[in-house]
Amino acid sequence: MNKDNSNLLEKIVSLCKRRGFIFPGSEIYGGLRGTWDYGPLGSELKFNLKQSWWDYMVRERDNVFPMNASIMMNPRVWEASGHVASFTDPLIECKTCHERFRADKQEDIKEHEERHAKNKEKVEWTEPKQFNILVEAKLGVIEGEKTTVYLRGEITQGVHVNFKNIVDSMHPKIPFGVAQIGKAFRNEITPRNFIFRSREFEQMEMQTYVKPDEKEAMEMFEAMKNFRMKWYLDLGMNKKKLRFREHAPDERAHYARAAWDIEYETPWGWDEAEGIHHRGDWDLSRHSQFSGQDLSYFDQEAKERFIPWVIETSAGVERPLLYFLLDAYTEEGDRVVLKLHPKLAPYKAAVFPLLKNKPELVAKAQGIYKELKNNFTVAWDERGNIGKRYFAQDEIGTPCCITIDFQTLEDDTVTIRDRDTMKQERVRADELNEILKKMAD
Ligand code: ATP
């Protein structure tokens, strides 16, 4: 097996474009930096990734409540949360070419300085300026009287501002979680590394409200850290490429009592997949103060009223998606295989008639294809020779290929070929539903 990591990112970018996973945003107009469009296979992969998170975090657990809040919120939300004042990155500018960078991203700065050094130029930088990365939009119909709103910079606040609604409508018993998946927007100074740092992206988050007790909060924090790491491992990510990293004190938001990241070893070094944060009572206290509403919780059992603390798990969608692609990419001899977990794979199977000019084979294969399509995403391919069709499916991560041949017409059996082992087996056509179901579970 050849896992040559040189140019791995370039290989993924090219495969994603060529095979319909991910395209540069607005490409025919020259693009829009930091935006990406998901094509047919990328949309399926993204959907599967989110579904897997949702099943794992919401459906399979008790006392977790789903939410879906607005992207645009009252601007006071972002004053209360501290984003208007301090959702900033330090910006510096190269005095020679005026390109702008984040002063805290040493790698980018080094790369830029090396680029100038090749022309025997020494880079001089401007002093760092704090740059707010909230994306603004204008709402209203009368010119001059429009209100500035912010496209949410994180999905977290949509949950905290609904804390009272959740408590009043669902009567949850503490500790309880509120989960959400949705878009977030950041005016990133340097979008880079494909979808890793985009200006529009999605997040998958759970806010767990706990009693204001350091021991209980830290127990929940540890449990969440391990639970989140297990999600990556259950989906088959290489354990050696995953690690926890504790934030240094100067990286931590001032209100965070503990902050750890789950990181993946990317071609550009270890980098963040998601964060687990102990946010104390920062969010609810601030929203209570700014809105004038009582956001406390009454614990029926202990007969106590308090403002809960929050343990947050905040994952992006795009970063894990990119890491799963990097992790799955394998070159074996003359084939490229995406060894994606079947849960994530855009297609669970591909169905082929052995020959496309034999109507009875095509009709039989179409019947099997349509039947499987009721329960799974399945690809159909009748072009070229079988070997090429197998390789084309390997490259997009389809876990198995089902071929309908002349024997199928006689005894209703098909061959099923495994993506990873390339082994072929003959099975009864009426077993296929069960086989695919087991595989996807
Ligand atoms: P960074 O330091 O890399 O800018 P962050 O620490 O500010 O990221 P958080 O605010 O903790 O990120 O956001 C939670 C998660 O949202 C991140 O772990 C990441 O997966 C995702 N995320 C944040 N910013 C982006 C972005 N610009 N593009 C894609 N995903 C992002």
UniProtKB/TrEMBL annotation:
Pfam families xref list: HGTP_anticodon (PF03129), tRNA-synt_2b (PF00587)
Record-linked InterPro entries: aa-tRNA-synt_IIb, aa-tRNA-synth_II, aa-tRNA-synth_II/BPL/LPL, Anticodon-bd, Anticodon-bd_dom_sf, Gly-tRNA_synthase/POLG2, GlyRS-like_core
Keyword line: Aminoacyl-tRNA synthetase, ATP-binding, Cytoplasm, Ligase, Nucleotide-binding, Protein biosynthesis
Domain Aminoacyl-transfer RNA synthetases class-II family profile span(s) in chain numbering: 10-346
Protein name from the UniProt record: Glycine--tRNA ligase
Cellular component terms per the entry's GO annotation: cytoplasm; extracellular exosome; microvesicle
NCBIfam families: PRK04173.1
Keyword Nucleotide-binding in annotation: yes
GO MF entries: ATP binding; bis(5'-nucleosyl)-tetraphosphatase (asymmetrical) activity; glycine-tRNA ligase activity
Source taxon at top rank: Bacteria
Keyword Nuclease assigned: no
Single biological process term from Gene Ontology: diadenosine tetraphosphate biosynthetic process
